[in-house]
Specification:
- This protein is an alpha/beta fold and 180 residues long.
- It has two domains: 117 residues; 58 residues, no CATH class.
- Helix content is 43%, strand content 12%.
- The protein is built from seven helices and five strands.
- The protein has a five-stranded mixed sheet with strand order 3-2-1-5-4.
- The longest helix has 15 residues.
């Protein structure tokens, strides 16, 4: 995925749900902070953009609307080669203070609409809490290329209280990267 595609996804999603801003909470939120040329290939493999409407109901009706209109196997996906996964805000487990560190992506390509992207270290926390192989590969690539710092990730992991088992597993993993 490229930043231009993320901008397109933001533009399309905000149009569909009739809101000026959305949260970008999946791996491709990294493109709010860096262009595809600044990132390792492993960080831009995904063809999926996880977008959470800022104002959605308990049934996540707007997220469902995104899936139906521009989700996987939609005409949008077939046409553009990427898609939007509509998700709820609680999809990702995030560290305390994440909303104060959001990266704003708003420009001509988004038609002035805003994608509120996760700050890279907060994104890594969410990925490590999820704990899938692909998440470890993603975070590992960002670490190897100096995009994120392991000590900041470890510090923010300590503020996660929603899932202590996965948090402790993620802390062990990130600490192992600090070992010489």
């Amino acid at each position: 995925m490229q930043r231009g595609e993320l901008e397109h996804a933001i533009r399309a999603a905000t149009e569909i749900i009739r809101q000026e801003s959305v949260f970008v909470i999946g791996s491709q939120s990294i493109l709010g902070s860096f262009t595809e040329n600044e990132l390792p290939a492993e960080a831009t493999f995904s063809e999926e953009v996880d977008i959470a409407p800022i104002n959605d109901d308990d049934a996540q009706s707007l997220a469902t609307e995104l899936d139906a209109a521009i989700g996987e196997m939609s005409y949008f996906h077939e046409t553009h080669g990427f898609y939007v996964q509509g998700v709820g805000r609680s999809t990702a487990v995030l560290p305390a203070g994440w909303t104060e560190r959001l990266v704003i992506l708003s420009n001509e390509n988004t038609l002035g609409r805003t994608g509120l992207c996760l700050e890279p270290h907060d994104l890594c926390v969410a990925k490590l809490i999820a704990g899938r192989t692909k998440d470890h590969l993603f975070v590992g690539a960002l670490l190897r290329h100096g995009i994120v710092r392991p000590e900041i990730i470890a510090e923010r992991l300590l503020t996660v209280s929603e899932d202590e088992v996965r948090r402790d597993r993620a802390i062990s993993w990130i600490r192992s990267t600090l070992q010489p």
